[in-house]
Amino acid sequence: MDNEGMRGKMSEAAQYELIELLCRMMPGGIIGIYIEKGFPLYVINDTMLQMLGYTYDEFVERTGGMMLNAVCAADRDIVQALLSARVKWEKQLAVEYRIIRKDGSFLWVHDVGRKLTMEDGRQVIISVLVDISDSRKMRDRLMEEAEKDYLTGVFNRKGGEILISRHMQKDVPYIFLMFDLDNFKNVNDLYGHNEGDIMLRFMGGLLKRSFRASDFVIRLGGDEFALFAQPCHSPEAVSEIAERIIRSYEEEAGRRYPLVSTSVSIGGIYGTQERTFSELYKMADRILYGIKRNGKGRCEILQEQE
Questions:
Q1: pLDDT tens readout for residues 234-247
Q2: What residues have CB less than 8 Å from 293, skipping those under 6 apart?
Q3: Under CATH, what is the fold of the domain 148-303?
Q4: Is the pTM of this model over 0.70?
Q5: CA-to-CA distance for 158 and 68, rounded, in angstroms?
Q6: Angle formed at CA 280 by CA 277 and CA 285, multiple of 5 degrees
C-alpha cells in the first residue's frame, strides 16, 4: 500500500483485511472506490449502508457496483470532475455532495478521502463520509435569504461572488457568461417599472430553465445577469443555448413591448485557470462592450488558450 507512515509490504488480501477492520472500527461511514470510470465500489462499511438505508446486496444492485450511480444526478459531473482532476496532484481529497438514499431522499455528505495504490497497481480512494444534511439545510436557508435577488429568484451579486469563490476549482473547465438587456431603460420609460420588473423575472426564469440546476444564475444588478457553470466541457453547446435565450427574450419582448426594440447581448469566458469573480467580470465585460458597439443582440465567448 502506497501510504505514508506505514512500513513493510502488505499483500492485497492483507490490505483489504486492514481496511475492513477500519470500516468496522470507525464510527462514520466509509466507502472505498477504484479511481476508474464510474468509480467501481471497492469497500463500504455497515454504518454507511445504514445511513443510506440499504443492505450491501441492495446497494450493489441499485448502483450496479458503481459509486457514481449513487451520487445525486445534479452532482455527478462535479464529483467526477473534481475527483478526476484532484487525484492527479493530491493524495488527500475533500468534497461535499449528495448521495441518493434507498427511499429516494438525499444525504448530504462531507467526504474526506485518501488516495492509495494497491499491490496490483490499481488506485483507490478510501473516504470517511460525515452526514452534514442538517447543517447544509441551515446553511442553504441562510444563504438563500442573504444571497438571493428577491425580484427574480436568482442569486444576487454578493451570492454570486461567494459561490464562485467557493466552487472555482483548479484545472476543471468552466464558463462565465454576462447577459445585458439592450435598451431596457426604454421598457421602463414607455411601459412603466412594473412591466420592467415582469421582464426581469421572465429573464431570470428563462436562464434558470436553460441551464443545469447545479449552475449558478446571478443578477448582477439592474438589467445585467451572469452565469457560472463548472464543469463545462462544451462551450459550443453553451453557445447554442445562449442563442436560444436571445431568440426567446426577443420574442417575448416583441410580443409585450412592440414600441421598444430590446435584445440580449452575451459575452463570456471559457477556461480552466482559477480566477476571482472580479477577474471574470472584467474579462466578460470587455467582450460585452465590443458586442454592444457592433450591433448588440448576439453572443461571443472567448476560449482561453490551454
A1: 999 999 999 999 99
A2: none
A3: Alpha-Beta Plaits (3.30.70)
A4: no
A5: 32
A6: 120
